[in-house]
Design brief:
Blueprint: H1 3-9, E1 10-14, E2 22-25, E3 45-46, E4 58-60, H2 62-69, H3 86-104, H4 107-110, E5 115-122, E6 130-135, H5 141-152, E7 160-164, E8 175-176, H6 178-184, E9 190-191, H7 197-204, E10 211-216, E11 222-232, H8 234-243, E12 248-249, E13 253-259
Parallel strand pairs: 8-9
Antiparallel strand pairs: 1-2, 1-4, 2-3, 5-6, 5-11, 6-13, 7-10, 10-11, 12-13
């Protein structure tokens, strides 16, 4: 992503709320929350959760904000200026760095054709226990779910749902196991057998260091997530699996490593 595209996409939200101003991603879906006015929807999504948003906020580019506040930042790089939330600033810097790395790795050309090594963990127990699952592009979310349930011993007594990054209950994928879909009969959900890893990867530009999420039990939720530890071409997956003795397998995926208490 070019510097101009970054500075146009991410703007400073000038508000009287809090001691610093925050950053909004204008390309994200409009923030959910109270409807302040039929004429005034809060644009985009704020990049941290450390303040509330105000319908009276103004949105200006970094260059205009820097001129106003009298500092010399014209691009999102280095440390955050004192007037801007450091959490929001770091999120933009990381986004730009990831975009540059994706260009170097020809990610756009390879997305949908590669497999992944996904390290699955439960929030709050990440250091004590994890499981590495290797998936191919054609692996369905149903196959992945079968392996996730194998090590978590989750059952179908409560709903579970897969999403992107840290979405959990706010999943934009709305992927649930097939057998649970027949119970809820809600057309807003998608059955796991209808979605492949390639589908998810193309939607999320899934690459090294990115995450997926899963929530179990919507009433008293448990949160699980995975980190992409490796990206594999088709031949690399086959050679890798020949060298390893999988712990458990489906037709196109396998648990290949684990850390248990």
């Amino acid at each position: 992503m070019t510097e101009t595209a970054t500075t146009d996409r991410f703007v400073i939200e000038v508000s009287r709320v809090g001691t610093v101003d925050h950053i909004v991603d204008l390309e994200a879906d409009p923030a959910s929350g109270p409807s302040y006015s039929s004429r005034r929807e809060l644009p985009g999504e704020k990049l941290c959760n450390r303040s509330t948003r105000s319908p009276t906020s103004e949105y200006i580019t970094l260059r205009d904000y820097a001129d106003w506040k009298g500092f010399d930042k014209t691009a999102f790089e280095g440390d955050a200026p004192d007037q801007v939330c450091s959490y929001c600033w770091t999120a933009v810097v990381e986004h730009a760095e990831r975009g540059e790395q994706h260009e170097c790795d020809d990610v756009d050309e390879r997305i949908g054709t590669v497999g992944y090594r996904l390290r699955w963990k439960q929030k709050g127990r990440a250091r004590e226990e994890w499981y590495d699952i290797v998936v191919r592009p054609e692996t369905t979310m149903a196959e992945l779910d079968a392996l996730v349930c194998r090590f978590t011993t989750l059952d179908d007594l409560h709903l579970r749902m897969y999403g992107l990054e840290d979405e959990y209950m706010d999943s934009t994928l709305n992927v649930i196991p097939d057998q649970q879909f027949t119970e809820v009969r809600d057309p807003s959900y998608t059955t796991a057998s209808e979605v492949t890893i390639a589908d998810v990867a193309e939607r999320a530009t899934l690459w090294d260091g990115d995450r997926l999420s899963m929530v179990y039990d919507f009433g008293t939720p448990s949160h699980y997530y995975c980190i992409v530890k490796e990206v594999y071409s088709g031949d690399e997956i086959e050679n890798f699996l020949k060298e390893r003795e999988p712990i458990a397998t489906t037709e196109t995926a396998a648990i290949i490593d684990e850390k248990r208490p």
